[in-house]
Design a protein that fits this description.
single chain, alpha/beta, Aspartate Aminotransferase, domain 2, Aspartate Aminotransferase, domain 1, 2 domains, 7-stranded mixed sheet, 4-stranded antiparallel sheet, binds pyridoxal-5'-phosphate
Length: about 400
């Protein structure tokens, strides 16, 4: 199986945007097409396109009414944007620990972190695997919390029969270039809630009244803005809009998304086959109720092995492997947060000891890239993995 990352369709849609000469009256046509197709694909009424999958999170929190000083529960084992977006909203990220088997946000740990100031939870589908969403939604309902799914790494993953992104009150996706659906940069929020979609749309587009008037589409009416007495801004917002050129690429990618997801799952299948007899490499636990989307194929290196993460990586590279990464540093241990008091009401100490499960896990993780577009090439990487395992002794 060979796929083209950027094919004919992407080029044709980009050509259509360029042919429009960026005339403002046609300015949001491609984003409108993308949003309609995206919402339909996820079976929700509203999709709002963004410049990236960090702005999405910020906008959704603000639109949900998260206020300065409110607490938002996030996992520490994820890309830093999840917690940064909470800080962008002037709220306080509260780190809950992860489950030792799935490595995703632990419902039990969430329960321990809830206080009177908690307003929201951001469960992350880590590497493409949803957390225990039924349990998280139950906790949220009990405490009246907003649930924002961070599905940046998960396209068409499933959790108890539901597509990831359709379970929380809203969900955020990223179209950054390593993602299943890539337009260089870009993002999307989906929600079934009209009022929320409207506020998200306004926040995304400088608080423009005319934009906010249409939750399903962001076109600004020309006649209205020509009047000298026209008042433009209903609220303070950001300019987080997705450019038309990105939307053109994203729409084409969306129309081909099944192929991209299938490719990643096939690549993950090759890696899974390569490790099946190895006693010291463990993948995420995926139970029968879940379908993993494999943004990355990640393994935990056993504690008792007589070699280091770096020695494993070097041998894998020597034997023909590539595209291997360690997991992100836990967000609260990054220099941007470590030891700091970023909010006057912050009660957690951003230091070692906060989330012991994630702290034990993070240095042991090996992330294998799955965004190959040639399955034979990926097969050679899986062979390299198998050879590395044989070298060290399964
Ligand atoms: C889990 C997660 N959340 C948020 C983001 C932020 O997305 P973006 O890079 O589009 O801002 C990413 C990826 O980059 C991510 O992996």
């Amino acid at each position: 199986m060979i796929l083209e990352r950027i094919g004919k369709k992407e080029k044709e849609y980009v050509r259509q945007v360029l042919a429009s000469q960026f005339r403002s009256s046609a300015g949001s046509e491609m984003t409108g097409r993308l949003e309609a197709a995206f919402a339909a694909r996820f079976g929700v009424d509203y999709a709002v396109s963004f410049i990236n999958g960090t702005a999405t999170l910020h906008a959704a929190l603000a639109a949900a009414g998260v206020q300065p000083g409110d607490e938002v529960i996030v996992p520490p084992l994820t890309m830093a944007s999840t917690a940064f977006a909470v800080l962008h909203a002037d709220a306080i990220p509260v780190f809950a620990d992860v489950d030792p088997g799935t490595w995703t946000l632990s419902p039990e740990s969430i329960k321990r972190e809830i206080t009177a100031k908690t307003r929201a939870i951001i469960p992350v589908s880590l590497y493409g695997l949803a957390p225990d969403m039924p349990a998280i939604m139950e906790i949220a309902a009990r405490h009246n919390l907003f649930v924002l799914e961070d599905a940046a790494q998960c396209f068409l993953g499933f959790c108890h029969g539901r597509v990831v992104g359709s379970i929380g009150h809203a969900a955020s996706f990223s179209f950054q270039s390593s993602k299943h659906l890539a337009s260089g940069e870009g993002g999307m929020i989906i929600t079934a809630n009209r009022e929320l979609a409207l506020r998200i749309r306004r926040f995304n587009s400088l608080g423009y009244k005319a934009v906010g008037g249409a939750a399903a589409h962001g076109k600004i009416c020309k006649e209205m803005i020509q009047e000298p007495g026209y008042e433009r801004h209903a609220s303070v917002g950001w300019n987080y809009r997705m450019p038309e050129l990105c939307a053109a690429v994203a729409l084409a990618q969306l129309e081909r998304i099944d192929d991209f997801v299938e490719m990643r799952r096939s690549v993950a299948g090759l890696f899974a086959e390569a490790i099946k007899d190895c006693s010291w490499l463990t993948p995420q636990r995926v139970t029968a109720d879940y379908q993993h989307a494999y943004w990355s194929y990640a393994l935990r290196l056993g504690e008792d092995v007589p070699f280091s993460w770096q020695e494993f990586r070097d041998k894998y590279s020597e034997l023909g492997g590539d595209g291997i990464y360690g997991a992100w540093q836990l967000t609260y241990l990054e220099p941007a947060l470590r030891g700091l008091r970023l909010h006057p009401d912050q009660s957690q100490q951003f230091s070692q000891g906060l989330c012991p499960v994630a702290e034990a896990l993070q240095p042991r993780l090996l992330q294998f890239k799955t965004n190959y577009f040639d399955l034979d090439l990926a097969g050679r990487k899986a062979d390299a993995l198998q050879a590395t395992i044989s070298f060290f002794g399964a």
